[in-house]
Amino acid sequence: MNWYLQNGKESDVVISSRIRLARNLKNTNFVNNSKKEGLEKILKNIENITENIGYNLKFIRLKDIDDLTKMCLIEKHIISPDFALNNIDVGAILINEDENICIMINEEDHIRIQVFSSGLDLEHLLDLINEIDLAMSSFVPYAFSEKYGYLTACPTNVGTGLRASVMVHLPGLTQSGNVNKVLEIVNNFGMNIRGIYGEGTDTKGDLYQISNKQSIGIHEKEIINNMKVIVEKIIEQERTARKMLAKNSINLEDKVYRAYGILLNCRKISSEECEKLLSYVKLGTDLGIIKELNDLKVKKLELYTKPANLQRYTNKILDGFDRDIQRAEVIKNIINN
Amino acid sequence: MNWYLQNGKESDVVISSRIRLARNLKNTNFVNNSKKEGLEKILKNIENITENIGYNLKFIRLKDIDDLTKMCLIEKHIISPDFALNNIDVGAILINEDENICIMINEEDHIRIQVFSSGLDLEHLLDLINEIDLAMSSFVPYAFSEKYGYLTACPTNVGTGLRASVMVHLPGLTQSGNVNKVLEIVNNFGMNIRGIYGEGTDTKGDLYQISNKQSIGIHEKEIINNMKVIVEKIIEQERTARKMLAKNSINLEDKVYRAYGILLNCRKISSEECEKLLSYVKLGTDLGIIKELNDLKVKKLELYTKPANLQRYTNKILDGFDRDIQRAEVIKNIINN
Question: What's the pTM value of the predicted model, to 2 decimals?
């Protein structure tokens, strides 16, 4: 099953974990300094070794992916919007069936290996990505400096080239008004925190993405350990905030069940309202207040109410008006089945 | 069964009909001009003849009715708030089991005979009230002038002493923005229109009360016929407005089902919000959109979510905070049973 429809560890607070490694080819211009022919050569090169890397990866050029599928991948945070929109002619991905491995070719760097998992699972992800990295490096020589480590297009990634990120759901801290305080602390511990579609985007449905700032002068294992410690602190704080909320149980029950009642009964609903209501519904399910749902259904609701994945689910191309109507239908289907 | 829990004619628009006759005793000071002893004499007089009037009427003094029961009667529009609050020592009612007959003694007039029915049923009510009036008049001589008709404490009631009123539900006209135009026309036809708790009160849940202005120089039958014609016009207009609303069916369905979803899932709800949502739910049920409910359940919901009747239904004395919680419980019970 796809990782994003599975349940993971600490999934009441942690939605998903992700690690990516930025790598570039030795003696080759960075993507932003390359002519089209050079990038095309890289694509061919990688296409040829795809089978050798293993993991049942499939090589697909961006231009061979239809727009809806691209949007679906963006909504699942498997590829970046920038990559999908701007690198169409020169970009490609290597992806497996479960979609827990996706290597972007010719994004900001020549190679960006990414691995994903549901819940908090950074150690396993690190083992997996190191394995993949080792496999790749035996077929393509990386740009590496003894002094700096792996060389990358953007200096912030030089060194390990590693960015770990964890998506967390913080409705308790948001409602208690303490979310900014916690986020500030996270920031002081060398972590970035931002909206769920990456830098500069808004927070939706009380979801936040935490990632490491530093990638140089520190070992991969240390980055992951630091992140784990921070995330565990956040989990603790969020759970405490939820306990406080639950003390005024009738108010909380009322809020989460009203959200559930609207989702189950509306006949049309926008993506934005849906995200807001699902945040309450997830909170209610995680706290055992909403008995009519389980975590996996909430995962499905979260995925298949997003604009592109909704169309994939219903197998229909829909404009905004019809999406709002179909979204209400899909919610009912998922809850009742 | 009590009339207010039954279904009547044209009940998609007309909630209930009511007629009252104002009568005063011959050669007796009006209530506002009487000493307590005089009013006490009237009470005794009426108490003695109660059985003779028939209809299984029971004579009950206001001071023997507990506050909750009084509030329940007010919420059902069977007695006026003024009467219940200000005439405690000298007031009484004659009421039957079904509560479709209630005669107020020593309200503004010595005798106010009232009859009620669900839906639009003015002709039957006129027959019934004339029968009761005839029975009473054979035991108590009325103040009557050949020139003016029945004499009453307030000049606006002199003549027939008759006021007919009909409570209508006008969500279609309210939403189409035409309700004021229609109400103006009603006014020009010699009818009053006002909020559901009588003069000077606000409109709640799109409910309006229509009553005749004129009671002198016109025969009772004519008053009733005029009112019937006007109400039938309003019914027509309201149904047309609803058809227009239903053309944009997804919007209407969405609104009524969201209201239904909140009512069924909330864990606390105020009286005001409940009235607003029930207005949508009644509209949805009347238009056949909401299949999960029927008219009788909507009647029950409307009655037992009112503050006093809620406490009667649950058999508990509740403060405002607990009422909001119990109201949510009662709604679930009524819908699911």
Answer: 0.89
